[in-house]
Amino acid sequence: MTQQAVSSSNQTTWRNSPPYLLTILVLLYFFSQSASSQSPELSVRQAIESLLASKQQPLLSQADFSQYSDALKQLYQMNANQLIWLGEGRTAKNREDALSLLSNAKADGLNPDTYEVERLRGYLQQAVTLSKNATTELVSYDVALSIALVHYARDLHVGRVDPRDFDYPAQFAAKSASDVAVLLNQHIQQQTLAELPAALAPKFKQYQKLKTLLAAYRQQNTAAQKPKLLLAKSLRPGEQDAQLPELRRRLLELGELKAEEVIGAGSTETLYDAAATEAVKRLQQQQGLKADGVIGKQTLALLNQTPADKIAMLELAMERLRWMPELPEGPRIFVNIPAFQLWAFNSRDDQQPLTMKVIVGKAEKNQTPVLWEEMKYLEFMPYWNIPKSIMDKEMLPKLLSDEEFLTSQDIELVGRYADDDEDDDENQDSIVDEIKSGRVRARQRPGSNNPLGRVKFIFPNKADVYLHDTPGKAAFNRDRRDLSHGCVRVAEAGKLAEFVLGDQSEWDQQTIQQAMAGPKTQRVTLKKSIPVLFFYTTVFVGLDDKPRFYPDIYGQDELLQTALSKAADPSVKQQLVSKTVNSAGGG
Hints:
Layout: H1 3-8, H2 11-16, H3 19-54, H4 69-77, H5 92-103, H6 117-127, H7 135-158, H8 179-190, H9 196-200, H10 205-220, H11 244-253, H12 259-263, H13 274-286, H14 297-304, H15 307-323, E1 332-336, E2 341-345, E3 354-361, E4 371-380, E5 384-385, H16 388-401, H17 405-408, E6 411-414, H18 428-437, E7 441-444, E8 455-458, E9 467-468, E10 482-484, E11 488-490, H19 493-500, H20 509-516, E12 522-535, E13 539-541, E14 547-549, H21 556-567
Parallel strand pairs: 1-12, 3-10, 9-11
Antiparallel strand pairs: 1-2, 2-3, 3-11, 4-8, 4-12, 5-7, 6-7, 8-9, 13-14
């Protein structure tokens, strides 16, 4: 019998009932009252389980929360599937701290609007006025805030988009999002949500430097936008230009020119004088450009970057760092592709790494891939195993026009079915056919013509790229150095070999130089492999705490920005087409 049936029984029925029936009715009445007293907790649990199972939250503009479903279930299970933010025993401090986190998401380069913080603020103001029996409304508001917090925590911890969409290797998606719910719950229980960003964000010093820089540029971005500097041709030291006063102001803002130097220009304010020239040279030096003081296209582009431009680049750089797992302690080699620069660190806190210029893959055809591999060995005086694509496209046309081309380039054919002595009379057409068919492969002997130079550094990878020396040293003087077939050429191969073999006592500067000048190929296996990271970021803060902004040579910033825009609306199916072109592995 239901409570309603009991309450509707009239007094006559009660009086005329047998004693045992009256007893049963009384017991049923009290049982129903007891069951009713338990129903709020049960109702809340059922409402939460039902809402989480639906994976839809109509209170939010992005109703589908299926990508956060597992983390949300885990979070609520750790709380016995009861309200987390609202109801008895739930503190206002946690709610306020949660909203504050979402409002301040921009400090980490995230957009607070993504997490609908103002909408949630309104919901929570309504929720505190509701009766505790308003189960449906309370559960909806509670879960809405949890969805936003899990969304924010995942974005900060592992990134907003999947790096594998950009052909990044699996190591860059190795961080698990499963610990997001655990971390979030810990800080809720301890009422320390203000500390959550530090627990979730990347632990790299570079990330913290970028975050500090982002805050500084946000302050600058409130100022009025300045007109772009326009030059019909490169501006050289000693020349006149009406835009020199504006150039000096920008150099002053960048910290490369002192206030007294700006004031001191006086009547020669339109002259590109020595002080302004030296300031431009310092800027060029910091950015890895040729420090000649000539303001050409790349230097002009740097000077015309607005705070808004830099903010956008910083946000992309911070996103990429969220993808990166922690590197193990010990030596590691880092190449930033658009910076054309290599760093070799002895440890995580190495303040004086080995640094050198590098040449990377051509932007349109042979892009150097992002990778993270282990260097296993190096080869002194290496052969160059010429990739078939290079042989077919670049060398066969030369061979067809010059019978002595292979001999002149010290190239030999390997894997032929006949001995060399029997091949002397073989005609040119036969050689070309064998190369085209793949029955033979070509390799260039060690020597002055070999494009790998005197040493190459091997870390096996699917793209078949590596670090290597080069005889073409003049190319390192160029500002833009995307010139290779995909491998990374290093400016100071001898110094890099010393770094790599630093823990092998039998190898010192003298023995390394001897090996680099020896007549034969020599392979040296490393006692301990060294992590090698090829990365892509157009912003990097150096050890001097000064930022460097690099050109987006492969268009990867544009691709990532497009992906982030799509990620803001999960209903739009992402179909990213990476601009990365597979390397030929040719050097």
